[in-house]
Amino acid sequence: RQRQMCIETAQQSGLSVGDILVRINNEDASNARDAMNRIAELRPGDAISVDYLRKGEIHSTRATAGLREQN
Fold first, then answer.
1. pTM exceeds 0.85 for this model
2. Strand stretches in 1-71, DSSP E
3. CB-CB contact of 22 with 53 (8 Å)
4. Region class of 63: left (phi > 0), else alpha (psi between -120 and 50), else beta
């Protein structure tokens, strides 16, 4: 199993489809792959601080890492 932020967790933290993750735990995410790799390094239950871009504005939220089954 690969560790990733579950869709439900992302939605609960206020993230929406189309948001661009720009920082994960105070470290810049240069692209989507980089953001996912940073999240994948976390253990289930770890707290995540996320800065994201939505409609030209930076927002911040917190989430919890979980496990997502890979298809």
1. no
2. 2-4, 20-24, 27-28, 47-54, 57-64, 66-68
3. yes
4. beta
Cα-based distances in Å from 42 to 18, 39, 49, 58: 23, 6, 12, 23
Residue 3 confidence (pLDDT): 44
Number of helices (H), then strands (E), in the chain: 2, 6
Phi, psi of 8 (to 5 degrees): -60, -45
What would the pLDDT profile of 27-68 be if each residue is shown by its tens digit? Answer: 999 888 888 888 888 888 888 899 999 999 999 998 888 766
